[in-house]
Design a protein that fits this description.
CATH class: Alpha Beta
Structural class: alpha/beta
Order of helices and strands: EHEHHEHEHEHEHHEHEHH
CATH architecture: Alpha-Beta Barrel
Helix content: 40-55%
CATH topology: TIM Barrel
Number of domains: 1
């Protein structure tokens, strides 16, 4: 499973990228807004040092504007993937863009039928929102599993980006369910490699070694 960072914070991305754990980045207007910087400037900077796909989301919602915006976004760097919302206009935009060779990430997926429609339209990626689905009292991991079954059964050229990852359990469930990718907030990454028993073990080794050196 590939790891994407769900953030527009360049420092967070550089930190995880230096560990060899950043296979790509997803952003959205809310994340860009938090950074208080120019949209194109942030995306271009991220794309300059992250080799994998960088998802940049359109801010328009009608078909013609989305297509126009997506064409412009795709020219910012070779690894740009355009995020398109799951709507009728979004599907129409994905269809035309896929025929032009523009890679798309259909976002805000909450059902199997939505994912299937996006894949049929030509989306390169689909993003089921696991955390939000769980909030609705449904099973986000099961949706990921079902989407993966559809991909494997029918041979769609599409990858699943497990989104809205809010906890270690969400992350692990995404892996078990067969997600190709999990996109993780920067503040969750450190929790993934940390464990209280690991910390206790290191402390014990340090104390034992200090005792040994003191003899």
């Amino acid at each position: 499973m590939k790891f994407f960072l769900d953030t527009a914070n360049v420092d967070e991305i550089r930190r995880i990228n230096d560990l060899g754990l950043c296979d790509g980045v997803t952003t959205n207007p809310s994340l860009i807004n938090k950074e208080g910087r120019d949209f194109k400037e942030v995306i271009s900077e991220i794309a300059s040092f992250v080799e994998g796909p960088i998802s940049a989301e359109v801010t328009s919602y009608d078909y013609e504007s989305m297509v126009k915006e997506a064409r412009d976004l795709s020219k910012w760097a070779d690894n740009i993937v355009v995020k398109i919302p799951m709507t009728e206009d979004g599907l129409r935009a994905i269809n035309i863009l896929s025929k032009e060779g523009v890679r798309t990430n259909c976002t805000l997926i909450f059902s199997l039928s939505q994912a299937l429609m996006a894949m049929k339209a030509g989306a390169s990626y689909v993003s089921p929102f696991m955390g939000r689905i769980d909030d609705m009292g449904e099973d986000g991991a099961r949706l990921v599993y079902d989407i993966r079954t559809i991909i494997d059964t029918y041979g769609f050229d599409c990858e699943i980006i497990a989104a809205s990852i809010r906890s270690i359990k969400n992350f692990e469930d995404a892996a078990l369910a067969g997600a190709h990718i999990a996109t993780v907030p920067g503040n969750l990454f450190e929790k993934l490699w940390s464990h209280v028993l690991t910390d206790q073990g290191i402390d014990k080794f340090k104390k034992d070694w200090e005792a040994f050196e003191g003899k």
